[in-house]
Amino acid sequence: MFEKMGARLIQADQLGHQALLPDGEAYHPVLEMFGPSILDEAGLIQRKALAALVFDHPEKLAALNAIVHPAVHLLQASITDGFVQQDPDAIILVEAAIHIETGGYKRYEKLVLVVCSPDEQIRRAMKRDQATREEVLSRIARQMPLDEKRKFADYVIDTSGNDVETWHQAVEVYNQIKKL
Q1: Which of 40, 48, 70, 116 could form a disulfide with 120 if both were Cys (CB 3.0 to 4.6 A apart)?
Q2: Is 16 in contact with 72 (CB distance < 8 Å)?
């Protein structure tokens, strides 16, 4: 929605995928750390296999994040520089699920938190990730609760309602950001 209004969007998850490709900065260090069992037949890192190795092991997840996050930040900085060269006044949004948990939000002027009801969050994650309810609940349990995240947010958009309601909230937030 923000893109339709003129903002530039960077999706950190896509950059994470890019960083894990064979020519990505994180590929070889991740492969060295976790071994060839995480590769598919084409030599690509299977994210689900990697996730299975780290999600119940906080120390392994921290080690993976220590490799992937810096690579994502480099890609993000390069894309941001390109956007700023095209338009010095551009509104650039970085979409990332764990900005608050990692402290990444501190690099930005404002934080927009997008929330929905817990049931909707579970349903969407199951559909998006082709994950089981148990997998999604396990992932959510390791995240900071939304009520805690709200304390960090400058703006909150609740997407639990219909698209029209969400659009109105997004327009209001976007217009406030444009005024800055």
Answers
A1: 116
A2: yes
pLDDT at 104: 87
- Domain extents in the chain: 12-90, 97-180
Note the CATH number of domain 97-180.
3.40.50.300
DSSP string, the chain: -TTTTT-EEEEHHHHHHHHTSTTSTTHHHHHHHH-GGGB-TTS-B-HHHHHHHHTT-HHHHHHHHHHHHHHHHHHHHHHHHHHHHH-TT--EEEE-TTHHHHTGGGGSS--EEEE--HHHHHHHHHHHHT--HHHHHHHHHTSPPHHHHHTT-SEEEE-SS-HHHHHHHHHHHHHHHHH-
For 34-82, how does the pLDDT look when each residue is reduced to its tens digit (9 = 90+)? 999 999 999 999 998 998 899 889 899 999 999 999 999 999 999 999 9
130 to each of 48, 64, 74, 166, how far by Cα in Å? 11, 22, 29, 25
Q: Which fold has domain 12-90?
A: Rossmann fold (3.40.50)
Residues 118-146: pLDDT tens digits? 999 999 999 998 999 998 998 888 889 99
